[in-house]
């Protein structure tokens, strides 16, 4: 994916104690052809549509974003947390009885398989994430053990 050309409107500014942060805006154009299913089980057409929807939603949520979605509807969300485990727990709590059968999107890679194990326990059926962790193989194995479909996008949308 290529970012759009930078200009004076291409940056996000965040005020923090004693200063500010400048980050480029997330204006990457998705290249769906680069997405890759990395698990034995592939997402079915309904799951794939929900993965696309959840991925688009996660892009606009504060970092460590975890989105649960089903039938192109946000069912749960956890964001702005110190780690993804807390975000998965928040998403599950928000989704409640709607969690089973939902898909999960993460704005950045999963560094450990624990998030996948939590997602599977919540009834998640498919996951979309950028990939790129040194532990991707462990994460993929956890997804395979739980019969989850997992898609790597190759692009992260981590937002501060």
CATH topology: Cytidine Deaminase, domain 2
Overall CATH architecture: 3-Layer(aba) Sandwich
Largest sheet: 6 strands, mixed
Query: What is the domain tally?
Result: 1
Notable traits:
alpha/beta; Cytidine Deaminase, domain 2; two-stranded antiparallel sheet; 160 residues; single chain; six-stranded mixed sheet; 4 helices
Give a brief outline of the structure.
The protein is an alpha/beta fold. 29% of the residues lie in helices and 23% in strands.
Topology at a glance:
Blueprint: E1 11-16, E2 19-24, E3 36-37, H1 45-59, E4 66-70, E5 73-78, H2 84-95, E6 103-106, H3 114-122, E7 126-129, H4 136-145, E8 149-152
Parallel strand pairs: 6-7, 7-8
Antiparallel strand pairs: 1-2, 3-8, 4-5, 4-6
Helix pairs in contact: 2-3
Describe this protein's structure:
The chain has 160 residues and is α/β, with parallel strands linked by helices. The chain has one domain (35-152): AICAR transformylase, duplication domain (Cytidine Deaminase, domain 2, 3-Layer(aba) Sandwich), CATH 3.40.140. The chain has 4 helices and 8 strands; from the N terminus they run βββαββαβαβαβ. The strands form 2 sheets. A 6-stranded mixed beta sheet has the order 3-8-7-6-4-5, sandwiched between helices. A two-stranded antiparallel ribbon has the order 1-2. Helix 2 packs parallel to helix 3. The longest helix has 15 residues, at 45-59. It is globular. The model has no long low-confidence stretch (mean pLDDT 88).
């Amino acid at each position: 994916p290529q970012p759009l050309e930078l200009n004076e409107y291409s940056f996000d500014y965040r005020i923090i104690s004693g200063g500010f942060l400048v980050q480029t805006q997330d204006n990457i154009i998705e290249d769906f052809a680069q997405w890759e299913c990395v698990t034995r089980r592939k997402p079915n057409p309904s799951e794939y549509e929900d993965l696309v929807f959840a991925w688009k939603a996660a892009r606009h949520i504060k970092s460590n974003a975890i989105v649960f979605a089903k039938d192109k509807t946000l069912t749960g969300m956890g964001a702005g947390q110190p780690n993804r485990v807390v975000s998965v727990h928040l998403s599950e709590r928000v989704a409640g009885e709607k969690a089973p059968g939902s898909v999960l999107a993460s704005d950045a890679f999963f560094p450990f398989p624990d998030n996948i194990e939590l997602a599977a326990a919540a009834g998640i059926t498919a996951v979309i994430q950028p990939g790129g962790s040194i532990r991707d193989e462990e994460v993929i194995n956890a997804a395979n053990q739980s019969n989850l479909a997992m898609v790597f996008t190759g692009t992260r949308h981590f937002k501060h």
